[in-house]
Amino acid sequence: MRLKNLVLAAMLAASSLVAVPSLAAAKDLLVVDFIAEPSSLDPHVQWNTDSFNVYRNIFDNLLTRDDKGEIAPQIATEWKYLSDTEVEFKIRSDVKFHDGKPLTAEDVAFSVKRITDKAFASPQIGQFNQISDAVAKDATTVILTTKGPYPVLLAQLTKLSIVPKHVVEAVTKDEFNLNPVGSGPYKFEKWNRGVEVIVARNDDYWGKKGVFPKVAFRAVPDGSTRIANLQAGATDLASNMNNDLAAQIEGSGGSKVLPVRGERLAFFSLNVNKPPLNDKRVRLAIAHAIDKQGIVEGILGGFDAPLDELTSPVSFGYVEGIKAPEFNPEKAKEILAEVGESAKTEFSLLTTPTYDQRVVQAIQQMLTDVGLNVTIQSTDMGNWMQQMQSGPETIPASSFGRWSCGCQDADGTLYPLLHSSSSWSNIKDERIDKALDEARATIDPAKRLALYKTVHEIVAEENYIIPLYQASVIYGAAKDVEFSPLPNENLFLNRIGWSGK
């Protein structure tokens, strides 16, 4: 109980304080352990956590969010609406890429057009496809045009990394991935495949500089190894801690737990085109079979919170009062008995070691207990991402996933997961498409919220995807590390300090 109280106190502190890097002399090399290495260092190619937490520091975004979660300037210093569909951005004039070339409005326009180019096939295109044009008016002015009023534009632009046009056009996509050139607070130095990515501080950075001369992002899949590294002083910051690992950290006395409940949500995705999941009754039985509270309390130690909708409370679009089917395994058995033999059709459950396998195995057992036939299939994160965005006919029958758009807006979750035009979605529901499209086209917050309520209610009725819980972000850290985790899970190196105590 004492540990849980300490953890909850730490959560509140992490979500309310703003980290101010210490002026004390920092160590020469900050070591950060992730579960896996990046899938890509090209910011327009991939956006899983292990990738963007590295490349966010190599590249600047057009906008950013401050430690309070508010949209703030980055490459753009100011912006104004010229009309409902045109926004003018003023670009900093003192930014240089790591090769010394200046960043201009042309690079911004190029970056927008690159990530929205259907031929480029960025997995992020669904979050930027409402932008119809980007024009550099002059060296420091860019005008973005949207297909209609687009209220999520600024939130999405906090994730738009600016790439150098002169470099990207001169090399292949693979070459840029292996030697990325950005304008961020850290420069890419080397990538030892399967081991680590090294970045070096950009001493010419236009903004707040990092306190660490170099940072190593290491791939350490095993949680106990991440703990051992932390306790031995070989690691300074370790991600993807679960409650058991957090308890070990608290018990050691030599390091600390840094948690925050974020915008990321866990879900159980169902491909409604594949039997037996194409039967609405089977999906309802699955919803009744999964004990969300049991998972949160019994497995995750209370760090996380059960969810009845596909939006977390820290994001716009979360609606109070949505009720998904309650945990009722007996009801699930009754429904499956009514369905008959077809309910016993075997189906796969895709996962990846990046996710907590205790949760995946618990879901499998819960479904088995009510009479379903589920087989777990595990793959690496890159392949999981590839399969999950492969289209309705080839997306796996079911999967455990965790989703964060980094934008703290329901559009960034609901549109890619549910809209029929998205490569991530296997769902074709005109009601959902209509509501999501309208929510993207109105700037009235009250109307948007009403539309998202409609979507949440349909999902709760049809059980296309089963929302599970609002995930917490838990880091283990050396005592000298000064860092407050953000709900959007971004790890900005120049916001991390070192006490030197």
TrEMBL record:
UniProt keyword Transport, yes or no: yes
A GO molecular-function term, please? peptide transmembrane transporter activity
Q: Give the UniProt family note.
A: Belongs to the bacterial solute-binding protein 5 family.
Q: Looking at the keywords, is Signal present?
A: yes
What Gene3D superfamilies does the entry give?
Dipeptide-binding Protein, Domain 1 (3.90.76.10), Dipeptide-binding Protein, Domain 3 (3.10.105.10), Periplasmic binding protein-like II (3.40.190.10)
Q: Which residues, if any, are the signal sequence?
A: 1-24
Q: Its GO biological process terms?
A: peptide transport
For the Solute-binding protein family domain, which residue ranges apply? 70-422
- According to its UniProt entry, this protein's organism is Pararhizobium polonicum
Please name one Pfam family that this protein belongs to. Answer: SBP_bac_5
**Localized where?**
Periplasm
* Alphabetical list of PANTHER family matching this protein: OLIGOPEPTIDE-BINDING PROTEIN APPA (PTHR30290:SF9), PERIPLASMIC BINDING COMPONENT OF ABC TRANSPORTER (PTHR30290)
Tell me which InterPro entries the record gives.
Peptide/Ni-bd, SBP_5, SBP_5_dom
Q: What name does UniProt use for this protein?
A: Peptide ABC transporter
Keywords for the protein's UniProt record, in alphabetical order: Signal, Transport
What are the record's GO terms for cellular component? ATP-binding cassette (ABC) transporter complex; outer membrane-bounded periplasmic space
